[in-house]
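User
Take a look at the entry that follows and flag anything odd:
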Amino acid sequence: MKSVFLISDNVITSLGFTTGDNAKKMREKCSGVLLSEDHFISPTPFFVSLVNTPLLEEAFCRLNSNAEYTRLEKMIITSISDALNKTKIDPASGDTLFIISTAKGNIDLLEERLNDSFPKERLRPAVMARVISSFFKNPNQPLVVSNACISGSVAILLGKRILNEGKYRNIIIAGGDVISEFTVSGFQSFRAIGSGPCRPYDEQRDGISLGEGASTVILSVEPEYNTSIAVKGGAITNDANHISGPSRTGEGLFLAIDGALKDAAVSAEEIDYISGHGTATNYNDEMESKAIHSARLENVPMNSLKGYIGHTLGAAGIAESVMAAYSMKNNILFATAGFSKMGVTQPVNVLSDCMEKKVKKVLKTAAGFGGCNAALIFEKQ
């Protein structure tokens, strides 16, 4: 089986338009989760992390496209372009495949103000993915992963497995979601949105902060990249507990973690850092802490980045994996914004301040509606 390397990346969020922009703000413990009074999204003010629209338009204009693209398509195309600019990979090559992860795709096109702005078929994620891959003149049918909040993590694991089969040399994996009236009203109906910026694992946590953004990783089996970060393994499970609530025991996520460790041939004792899911809902953080305990990883430093950028849904697994790779390359672990006092019954080692640490092996966890769970293992070469 060939080794699969993460050779380039990008993150676009409220904190900036590059991985470095986001890392700089996280080092400074700056949060992009702010109070919004946009009545097109919600009739009542709420805290959310939004991508700066004028800056997005400016960045997209630099790509010199004459065609019309939706807000989400612009975010994803801009993210992919930045990641590609740091490689020699030809996106138009038949040896390159595109995988797009998203929870809701162009869902904002359902809003009355955007109703007639694009063909209805653009609401279909498969059509959106083809629009994006066509921008880069790629000849292959793109794949779409839409599996709630584990979409990005699943897309990375899928990309690794496809590269292991030897059909492609490189895979461009990009994820994204926008914040719309539909998205916000859905989470509001569950009473899942916090009263302020989210506080993962904290005793005062009272719900999530939504976020929009796009992120990209480029995976390759080319030997010239063997000094980069390797995707060592991963696993996916489903506990089927409830359509919108995670398992109360953490068993599903534990099985994903255990499966990822076995897939990567890595022991729990070798894990140096955990990039947690940490949504700041009572149920998720409690479930996640139980799973971490079951895997005997409770003393490993861990964080959640959602206090900085919100829950970016279909982009979350990719964006948080990119920032984990940044931590591995730069020996810096980010603090968990909003966390000050342990609020889960099974204590875990949540970072309240940035920490310098040499990191070789990382566990990334994710969980989502429908009882789905995912875990990935990365290793610095």
